[in-house]
Design goal:
172 residues; Glutaredoxin; five-stranded mixed beta sheet; four-stranded antiparallel beta sheet; 4 helices; 11 strands; 23% helix; 31% strand; Thiol peroxidase
Length: 172
């Protein structure tokens, strides 16, 4: 049975339910299957040996998600070849590609959780009420161990960019 965490977060002050486990620092990063585009899937193993900064957003077409993804795109330039910045949302791959083109985002790999919600359920960020993924940040080392987690308590809040980047830099 899938774990539900009722009231684990809010949307504009109203409680929402997150589906899946609450991951912690030291946990092995769960695998997932997401879409790179309509024909090609990706999983955790596709980024093996890399440090992964995983930025999760409900939808790229909202102000906070837009700003979060743009910020990590800028930060990615200074993190080096051993780091990959992934942005996961339930947006369709077409929408992600269109948004990246319009926003000039070219250093972040966008991945869509629209088909199976595998990422959302495995990382404990699937919002039951909306079938979107909750804003959160995960830093995963080259051996797929979680070294940083930020589950945002309020869906419309921004993450702590400085702490997330510091967690990545500590692994370099």
């Amino acid at each position: 049975m899938t774990q539900e965490r009722t009231g684990a977060a809010t949307f504009k002050g109203n409680p929402i339910t997150l589906i899946g486990p609450e991951l912690k620092v030291g946990d092995q990063a769960p695998d997932f299957t997401v879409s790179k585009n309509l024909l090609e899937d990706a999983s955790l193993k596709d980024f093996a040996g890399k440090i992964k900064l995983i930025s999760v957003v409900p939808s790229l077409d909202t102000g906070v998600c837009d700003a979060q993804t743009r910020r990590f795109n800028v930060e990615a330039a200074d993190l080096g070849e051993n780091v990959v910045v992934l942005t996961v949302s339930v947006d369709l791959p077409f929408a992600q590609e269109r948004w990246c083109g319009a926003a000039g985002v070219d250093r972040v790999v966008t991945l869509s959780d629209y088909k199976t919600r595998s990422f959302g359920e495995n990382y404990g960020v699937l919002i039951k009420e909306f079938q979107l993924d909750m804003r959160s940040i995960f830093v995963v080392d080259a051996e797929d161990k979680i070294t940083y987690v930020e589950y945002l308590p309020e869906m419309t809040d921004s993450p702590n960019f400085e702490q997330a980047i510091a967690a990545v830099k500590a692994l370099l």
